[in-house]
Design goal:
Blueprint (H helix, E strand, L loop, with lengths): L10 H15 L11 H8 L3 H13 L3 E4 L3 E4 L3 H27 L4 H15 L1
Antiparallel strand pairs: 1-2
Helix pairs in contact: 1-3, 1-4, 2-3
Length: 124
């Protein structure tokens, strides 16, 4: 399993975000063990300290816990916590960029909302 890492942010941050995505989608379920640091380091061919730093960020965020001798486990409520955090991040960071870009292109609110509604229907 080889990952194409981007140059715009550190690998540990990209790995952290990838795990957040897995928790959000439910691929990593609450109570489930995360792959070991060694396994992830081997699979992605990255340093184990990089994986450890990504995992520590998840612990610090209260999303996973370390169980001595057993590994790291997703905590109850982690999926909801990630969803809430990602919603807020989208509204405060990504949406303003979208609106600024629409304004730059001369897209008016009715056209933008119509396009968003259409895409939301297609996504369902």
């Amino acid at each position: 399993m080889q990952e194409d890492w981007k140059d715009d942010q550190p690998i540990y941050r990209q790995l952290h975000d990838k795990i957040l995505g897995l928790i959000l989608k439910g691929t990593l379920k609450e109570g489930e063990a995360l792959p070991s640091v060694r396994q992830v380091a081997s699979d992605y061919r990255i340093n184990h300290l990089t994986v450890g730093k990504a995992y520590q960020g998840l612990v610090d965020a209260g999303l996973v816990e370390t169980r001595r001798g057993l590994g790291m486990f997703v905590l109850a409520g982690a999926q909801q916590q990630v969803a809430t955090s990602e919603r807020q991040k989208f509204i405060s960071q990504e949406l303003p960029n979208l609106i600024a870009r629409a304004r730059q292109l001369g897209i008016q609110e009715p056209e933008l909302t119509k396009a968003i509604r259409q895409m939301m229907k297609e996504a369902n």
